[in-house]
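Reopening this ticket.

The earlier resolution said the output was attached, but the attachment link was broken on my side. Pasting everything inline this time so it's all in one place.
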Amino acid sequence: MADAQDGCVFCRAAAGDDEEGLVVHRGERGFALLNRFPYASGHLLVAPYRHDSGFDSLDDAEALEVHRLAVQAIEALRAVYAPEGFNVGWNLGRVAGAGIVDHGHAHVVPRWGGDTNFMAVLADVRVLPEHLVESRRRLAEAWPGS
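Inline output:
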């Protein structure tokens, strides 16, 4: 699994309990988990188990699995939330918006028309209609092949 690094949220989630870590699905080389500070309900992160593996340092097997997990994340999000679109991508480096720079990960963010509101803009507050533990359960049940 992960090369556990003290303080790394991804390594802790990979080594810990799925519900506590908000892990939705585990693969052989990577896993998907809910973002604790989501931009939208169902905001998933897909990461390799290997610590310090950014976009440009993934080996072929890791890159393929991270990509496949992101595709599966889209399928599960469609089944549970019926979003109208998605943002999928990597924030590489703090200046590019990465909140966690030492463990590479991709974002899969479901989007709906009009989903940006004044709360996030004026107060840096996000309103979520569902508890993260419930979102994790629903997405894990809807994960393709589960």
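Reporter confirms the inline version is readable. The mean pLDDT is 88. The radius of gyration is 15 Å.
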